[in-house]
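Audit log entry. Action: structure prediction of a protein-small molecule complex. Ligand: zinc ion. The ligand was supplied as SMILES and no pocket hint was given, so placement is left entirely to the predictor. Protonation state taken as written. Sequence taken verbatim from the request; no trimming, no tag removal. Recorded inputs:
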Amino acid sequence: MNLFRRLYLLTTLLLAPVPAFAQWQAGVAQVDITPTEPVPLAGYGGKTRLPLRVVHPIWIKALALRDSAGMTSVLVTADLVGLSETMVDLIARQALEKHGLPRERLLLNYSHNHSCPVTGDVLWLYYEHTAEEKAACDRYTKHLHQWYDEVIGKAIADLKPAELSFEQGLAGVAVNRRRSRPGGRGLGGQVDQDVPVLVARSGDQIRAVVFGYSCHTTALSGLTISGDYAGFAQIAVEKTFPGSVAMFVQNCGGDANPLPRIMGSNEAPAADLAQHYGDILAEAVRQVVRGKMIPLNGPLVVAMGTTELFFQPGPSLDELRNRRPDAKGMVRREIEHWIAEYESEGALKDRVPYPVQVWRFGPELTYIALTGETVVDYSLRFKAAYGWDTTWVAGYHNDLLSYVPSLRVLREGGYEGTTGIYEYGHRAPYTETVEQQIASKVEELVGKTRDESLPP
Ligand SMILES: [Zn+2]
């Protein structure tokens, strides 16, 4: 530690003791994104699923935070299956141009809800839509872009003095779903059942309760609009704390399902289960909020960077052309997509950019935001590295990208390891560098936020 830092620390300790709560401002907003016309449902491939009814409305919600340094940052959560790169770029550009929000101060998480409309070009190879259905999806996506702009603007306009606090609970809903597949019984059963909770209060009023969980929102698979178990949990939390906005963050649920679940269109028992799982999660949140929480003193130091994830070699153009005549459904769409890529680019993409964000709220909480469908190993690894009590790891930010396996899951293979990669339009599974590429970037960014919390 250099002399200046020592002096700074000494001065901080002697002259300016950290108050119980630092000076934060918080603003909260929500926008109802329930479709007003039938738009095909997202998340499960195959036959088009048109919604028959709305169980409860779906939302995007935003928490704007301004720390004592005067910097504004916004976290947006959504009852959506995911965003695409195009959507993220557009939402981020709007946020910068209209609200002056730099990219690194905007977090875009989605619950990975499978009971919401198809959005933009997310998982576009999955679905076989008619021109009419596609037009409905496009109209909905256009609205969504406006709603993102609206929710961010409203949250910033709502900024007022607030106190932030953090603590974690536990809920036993998530099960490692790889074990539930044929031949999977012997696989590792890793789960992360922590429920991190961030609360913004103004006086006695709880204004926002942000909570996370690592589990697919797939209790439901029928023909209804809802937020699945995460939607039920948000409703239950808001009922407990009147006047609050509850926001669900999908953490690293790439390989977890709420189990058991009831597949198919028989809605009543499935909805009961989703409600039940939501209630369990909400109870975990309730216990945290009513217990002793740790004040967050800030400042909020943010860092963002991009690494690259590499793919193994893919099929040749000849091979694809040979496979095309016999291919059907999604496999055919994948093959045609790659042939088109060969024809326009001369080769298949050998890598993808992988954005990572870190928000450090002071020593009490570091929030690590990863991209895509990250499996649970990432959460466990980074919490072990940076502190079980002070680290929140969440995937499902930015574009849905693909499943993001750890080295263990990649080597085990199966859906989240290898075979699920093609439906995202990628040529082959990731190489064995995938976990290390992400871990190195996270380490760099966490280091940056720790360094920058002190003056140079
Ligand atoms: Zn998924």
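Audit: result stored. DSSP finds eleven helices and 19 strands in the chain. The longest strand covers residues 160-170.
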